[in-house]
Design goal:
This protein is α/β, with parallel strands linked by helices.
Length: 467
Amino acid sequence: MTTTTDLCYLTLHELSSRIRTKALSPVEVTEAVLERIERLNPTLNAYLTVTAERALADARAAEGEIASGRYRGPLHGVPIGVKDLCATKGVRTTAASKILAGWVPDEDATVIQRLREAGAVIIGKLHLHEYAFGATGVNPHYGPARNPWDTGRITGGSSSGSGAAVAAGLCFAALGSDTGGSIRIPSSLCGIVGVKPTYGRVSLEGVVPLAWSLDHVGPMARSVRDCALVLETIAGHDPKDPSSAQAAVEDWVAGLDGGLRGLRIGVPVAYAYEQTQPDVAAVVHDAIATLERLGAEIKQLDLPVLQDYWLAASVVLIGEAAAYHQANMEQRPQDYGDDVRMRIQLGLDQKAVDYVRAARLRDEARRTCDQALLSEVDLLAMPTTIRTAVPIESLAKDDPTLGLTVLTAPFDLTGQPAISVPCGLTEAGLPVGLQLVGRRFDEGTVFRAAHAFETESGLSIGRPPVD
């Protein structure tokens, strides 16, 4: 007998198959997820807004369409959460800030439009680090998001609610955004799959910016296949977004089972492991050994340019964020949290020459990164984060944000696709993520390798003990 908890932990793909064959009703599923949110969200603080009435209405509409033979595809009738940076028509969009606490947009962001057109049931707006400007998910205005593996620990950020909600079965997939690692970091720390697609692959129209030239929107879910299904839905050129690329949306799901034989995977050993905690490094070493056992050729690389990319990404990020927030910093600086206000001020104080140099390196990296990083291999493999989730109380003495972005932010600068896939637990029972990075607009190879690893090692690392 399938329990409500079991139902909420189906993968999106499994749920979609049952909805399509009418073995499960979208209304039944939505009610189960809403009940679970009501029970667990007071502890996890993953959702800022739950749109229960609208979600049930959309679920009933989906059920009627499917019953009459108008099935829209794999997201039809599936409850999905969205990061509260994405504008939602008629529903408050706060960016987890005090400044936007009362903003109710008149239009949906493009990614929200595409989810709705696919028949997805948007169940609510997910918590984040204030304005996405941090990697912990601890927020002075709305409280901290809490990790389902240990509620005394951070989720990572900035897509903190997305990571917690997916891991705890409070939605079947979520949208996150990634400017310095904000999809991959919480995916790693919460034990789920998260994808930062190629820059320009997914529209940013209607998404509150952090840094225009580094922002990416992407999926977070409990399997690689689920992330591929969501990306196929939200990707594609958008004439309303000047950063949107003219790149065809591919059938990434069809290529998942290609296996690893013949793939060359590079490990930037010095950069990837120099600062990484031993317990994290040990789990990732085992994961890379699994890739080799599955037929991949593993090659050790020396890529010191990654340090240059990370430093440049930090300079570009704080400069562009400061430009976006300048007016509010002048008029109402007291309405920012201390950490975010400090970061914005760093950007305002930054020299123009430093930003220009970093931006020129960004542009060069996007032209040359595939050759600079992947001339000898097809993918890079490394830990997603150098550490596991830290206790929330420890942030009073040490903010881990910069350290958490060391292995992720270089690929926001280059714009290359990158995935974090769970690869095990430490002895303390905390999740570790394996990061795979591919060539620009080659999400297919990234998905293929991640799926092969996931299939070999088991679909997931299990359920967190939040129940």
